[in-house]
């Protein structure tokens, strides 16, 4: 993959010792945290003064990652985070395409005079939000893109075992353990070179995926058994989780992560939606198989977006009204949803 021509002046702007903030989207996932930590480690090795600042808390299954305890969480530590953002020379914005997704940090990021350097793999970046843009959509994850950025700029010799672990987490989680979003064989070449750095891929997989609490597993069971509406005629399944459902299972941040993927394991379902009730709105997560673009769907109807097969959105409707609004839309998109895989 030839991305060298797309890389804005990475080495040039990093020639002097600088104050740098690396940041990512609200509700950060494995790719957001993995790529942010990896890039921050590399920049520190280059001699810069670097902080990772994220809008809100990361999920508990990432707590083991190298360097994560040094991350500044804006929601809890705004007094530390604000001057870092204001006084930074460069802010690297990773794994999101618009400052609208930067949650609690948004106002301070917009106000900061720093050079804002985007590294991201979501389509349609908000070009006005950033000074320099490395946007590649034909790639599994921002972590894979960070690897390419480092190798194409001659900095990949700085990738050591902890940095390789961080990048591996980003690629593994954004591809659902190498099951989707793999656009080309380079993803495996990059992964192989990370493994060559001495990481223990099996241990990382266990640390990420085999750490559920009993409550989280029972919430998943409840969601599928009691809260899933299957509409085979529309190739769609919708799971709804109310505030009461979450309370019943002592919801902790990250507990609903991954639930939206399960309905797609039904052969005839091509669209899965998880609707979660929040304080004053509902959050929608979309997953699809094949040609149906949940990025377009979420953008058009639910103030959101994301990737072709994985996206999110919001609605100010009640949970019940949001479900009804969604169901009303399904007949209008059934032609796009009604495809089958020749699996056998
Ligand atoms: Mn990502």
Give keywords.
2 domains, alpha/beta, six-stranded mixed sheet, six-stranded parallel sheet, inorganic pyrophosphatase (n-terminal core), binds manganese (II) ion, 344 residues
At a glance:
Helices cover 37% and strands 18% of the residues. With 344 residues, the protein is of the alpha/beta class.
Would you write up a description of this structure?
The structure is a single chain. By secondary structure, the protein is of the alpha/beta class. The protein folds into 2 domains: 4-209, inorganic pyrophosphatase (n-terminal core) (Alpha-Beta Complex); 214-337, Roll (Diaminopimelate Epimerase, Chain A, domain 1). Helices cover 37% and strands 18% of the residues. The chain has 12 helices and 12 strands. It has helices at 10-13, 30-45, 78-87, 106-111, 142-152, 161-174, 186-195, 201-209, 214-226, 243-248, 294-301, 319-337; strands at 19-24, 49-54, 72-73, 90-94, 115-120, 132-135, 228-231, 236-241, 271-277, 282-288, 305-306, 310-315. The protein has a 6-stranded parallel β-sheet with strand order 3-2-1-4-5-6, with helices on both faces. It has a 6-stranded mixed β-sheet with strand order 7-8-9-10-12-11. The longest helix has 19 residues, at 319-337. It is globular, with a radius of gyration of 20 Å. It binds manganese (II) ion (MN).
């Amino acid at each position: 993959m030839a991305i060298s021509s797309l890389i804005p002046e990475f080495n040039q702007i990093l020639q002097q010792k600088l104050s740098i903030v690396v940041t990512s989207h609200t509700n950060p996932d494995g790719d957001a945290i993995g790529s942010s930590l990896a890039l921050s480690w590399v920049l520190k090795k280059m001699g810069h003064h670097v902080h990772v600042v994220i809008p809100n808390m990361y999920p508990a299954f990432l707590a083991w990652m190298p360097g994560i305890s040094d991350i500044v969480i804006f929601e809890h530590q705004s007094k530390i985070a604000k001057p870092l953002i204001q006084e930074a020379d460069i802010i690297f914005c990773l794994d999101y395409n618009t400052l609208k997704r930067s949650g609690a940090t948004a106002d301070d990021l917009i106000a900061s005079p720093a050079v804002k350097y985007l590294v991201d793999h979501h389509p349609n970046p908000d070009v006005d939000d950033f000074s320099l843009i490395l946007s590649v959509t034909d790639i599994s994850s921002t972590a894979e893109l960070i690897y390419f950025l480092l190798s194409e700029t001659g900095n990949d010799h700085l990738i050591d075992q902890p940095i390789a672990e961080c990048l591996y987490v980003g690629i593994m989680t954004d591809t659902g353990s190498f099951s989707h979003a793999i656009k080309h064989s380079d993803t495996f070449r990059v992964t192989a070179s990370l493994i060559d750095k001495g990481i223990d891929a099996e241990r990382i997989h266990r640390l990420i995926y085999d750490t559920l609490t009993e409550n989280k597993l029972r919430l998943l069971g409840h969601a599928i058994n009691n809260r899933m509406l299957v509409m085979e005629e529309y190739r769609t399944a919708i799971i709804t989780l109310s505030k009461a459902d979450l309370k019943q299972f002592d919801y902790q941040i990250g507990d609903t992560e991954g639930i939206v993927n399960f309905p797609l394991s039904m052969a005839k379902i091509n669209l899965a939606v998880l609707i979660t009730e929040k304080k004053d709105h509902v959050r929608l997560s979309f997953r699809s198989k094949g040609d149906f673009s949940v990025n377009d769907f979420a953008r058009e109807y639910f103030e959101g977006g994301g990737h072709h097969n994985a996206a999110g959105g919001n609605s100010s409707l009640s949970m019940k009204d949001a479900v009804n609004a969604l169901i009303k839309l399904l007949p209008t998109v059934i032609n796009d949803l009604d495809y089958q895989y020749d699996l056998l």
